[in-house]
Amino acid sequence: MQIRGSFQLLEAYRNGDRRFQGAQLSAANLEGSTLKGIALCSANMKCVRLELSDLREADLSGADLEGANLNGINLCKANLNRARLEKAMFSKANLENANFANADLSKTTAIGSNFTGVSMWGATLTKAAIDRSNLQRADFRGATLGFANLSRSNLTDANFERANLRGAKLSNAIVEGASFRYSDLRGANLTKTKLRRADVTQAMYDANTLFPAGFDPTSAGMHQYEYADS
């Protein structure tokens, strides 16, 4: 049965169904729903309302959640591999140990959320606002975070190896034990971070990169990018 709308979905879920691949839920109102373990692979969920809902261990791989309201949602251990989340809102959300590998989170707003242990491997977070969040042990290897805002976030033991952080804001972030090896930090704002406690070996910077007072990028093993004369 092709699921269309929140009523059909909730009724089928109450009857024990859990697999709803390709469901049509655009603009559906599922606020405050308990849908633990649900499978909505490749579902159309544009602008869906799921604030304060429980989707722990859900499978949303390949789902289209562009513009969705996910504020306060619980997505602990959920699978959002290759999901589309452009301009989605999930502030104050619990995303602990969720999988966002290769997902598109461009221009998302996730202020004050829990990203502990999340996988963002190869994800796109261009211009995303994830400031004041907990990103401890998060995996951002190979991710694109150009002009993203991670200021005042806890990045303890997070992995940003080979990530694109060009123009990103990391001011006042906690970076103890974080790895930025081979990352692109050109134009990034790293002021008021304790960068000495992070691994920045072979990370790229330029004249527009802002460092904390007294930090020497050369001694830390960073590589300065020299622009060719025009």
Describe it.
By secondary structure, the protein is mostly loops. It is 4% helix and 2% strand. The chain is built from one helix and two strands, in the order αββ. A two-stranded parallel sheet has the order 1-2. The chain is elongated. The mean pLDDT is 96.
Name its key features.
single chain, little secondary structure, 2 strands, 4% helix, elongated
Question: What is the structure about, briefly put?
Answer:
With 230 residues, the protein is mostly loops. The protein is 4% helix and 2% strand.
Estimated structural class: little secondary structure
Q: How far is the N terminus from the C terminus?
A: 61 Å
Mean pLDDT across every amino acid position: 96
The helix-strand sequence is HEE
Beta-strand share of residues: under 5%
Cα radius of gyration in angstroms = 19 Å
**Share in helix:** under 10%
